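Ops channel
N.P.: pipeline sanity check, posting one input/output pair.
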């Protein structure tokens, strides 16, 4: 009986959400409720894996800081350079010359013969640094060609207000896992063949499989397109992407975290707001664009999910750059809309119809996805750069 009551309660409340699709949401809510123990265990394992990577990253940074401090504390000795220091200076010159020829960095253009595998395919969060700075992900070329509200009409599944969580999640996955190659034209050309032709059908299924794989956190090369905007601009692929977003939305929003955030309408305490912004800042410093779920103040069910693309420090305070899937990419790239702590200690979002916020939290799938993507990207990089995959 308790299960039935809880199920009805979950469906009823989540159906109020601002990114709501009642039929799909109801079915998924029941499925997620029944599989809660399994999902909880899986989430715990993913969080453990993510925290292991995070700990290694923090240890690396601490070691680097200690090394810098040690060098700073050493006295400068004005002696004639020895042969060893002369060779070291020559090595530094060679390194600078090499940097002009190829880039020795994460995902750089250098080969493993001229740049260390540790640098090219780092065993830390630098593996996410495919674009630098991270806000470059927000540019139009790295964004979906349609907004969250457009997905309502594009998807094959009936919706009411959009698929914000699915839009944010799938965009993030493409930014990390998709490797575009516009020079390979054949599959792309077949996509525009006659509507009922065998070539077009096969090409469409080929690209749908790529989209499915990326949604499942797998690295894929995408021939025939130069970037995400081009891919998502194609009418047939737009429709499929929007439908995929609806399913991503349902799997993520129809959960107890979705319910909790939907009901969290009171402003957060200052210390909670500060901790959330600090946690998000750390993720961005670790080359990630976390997904943030939030509800408008005193508006149960008025809930939204966006990516946080960057941050600014204003008068010593953190202001988050919001990559809102209801906003235009060029405005997102400019950090036009921001979330910050207001004078009362709660959060404030300067986007139309929002203002003061109630509850806000990093999406429950953020760490889980990042942990899987981390290993996928390292494996792909090691293969591309002919590097050993040392764990």
């Amino acid at each position: 009986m308790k299960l039935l009551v809880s199920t009805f309660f979950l469906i009823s409340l989540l159906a109020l959400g601002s990114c709501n699709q009642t039929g799909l949401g109801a079915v998924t809510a029941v499925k997620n409720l029944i599989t809660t123990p399994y999902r909880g265990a899986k989430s715990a394992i993913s969080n453990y894996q993510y925290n292991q990577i995070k700990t290694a990253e923090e240890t690396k940074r601490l070691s680097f800081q200690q090394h810098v401090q040690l060098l700073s504390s050493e006295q400068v000795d004005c002696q004639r350079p020895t042969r060893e220091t002369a060779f070291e200076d020559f090595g530094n010159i060679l390194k600078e010359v090499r940097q002009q020829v190829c880039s020795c960095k994460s995902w750089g253009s250098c080969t493993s013969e001229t740049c260390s595998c540790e640098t090219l395919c780092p065993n830390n969060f630098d593996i996410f640094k495919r674009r630098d700075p991270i806000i470059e992900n927000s540019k139009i070329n790295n964004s979906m060609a349609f907004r969250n509200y457009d997905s309502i009409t594009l998807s094959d599944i009936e919706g009411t207000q959009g698929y914000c969580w699915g839009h944010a999640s799938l965009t993030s996955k493409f930014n990390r896992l998709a490797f575009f190659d516009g020079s390979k034209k054949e599959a792309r050309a077949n996509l525009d063949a006659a509507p009922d032709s065998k070539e077009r059908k096969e090409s469409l299924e080929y690209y749908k499989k790529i989209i499915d794989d990326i949604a499942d956190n797998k690295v894929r090369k995408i021939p025939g397109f130069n970037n995400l905007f081009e891919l998502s601009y194609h009418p047939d692929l737009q429709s499929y992407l929007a439908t995929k977003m609806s399913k991503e939305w349902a799997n993520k929003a129809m959960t107890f975290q979705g319910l909790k955030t939907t009901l969290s309408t009171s402003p957060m305490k200052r210390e909670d707001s500060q901790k959330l912004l600090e946690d998000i800042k750390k993720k961005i410093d670790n080359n990630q664009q976390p997904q943030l779920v939030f509800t408008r103040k005193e508006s149960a069910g008025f809930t939204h999910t966006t990516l946080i693309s960057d941050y600014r420090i204003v008068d010593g305070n953190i202001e988050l750059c919001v990559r809102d899937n209801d906003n235009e990419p060029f405005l997102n790239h400019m950090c036009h809309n921001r979330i910050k702590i207001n004078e009362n200690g709660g959060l404030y979002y300067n986007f139309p119809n929002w203002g003061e916020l109630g509850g806000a939290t990093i999406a429950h799938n953020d760490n889980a996805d990042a942990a899987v993507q981390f290993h996928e990207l390292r494996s792909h990089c090691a293969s591309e750069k002919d590097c050993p995959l040392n764990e």
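N.P.: looks fine end to end. The CA atoms of residues 231 and 237 lie 7 Å apart.
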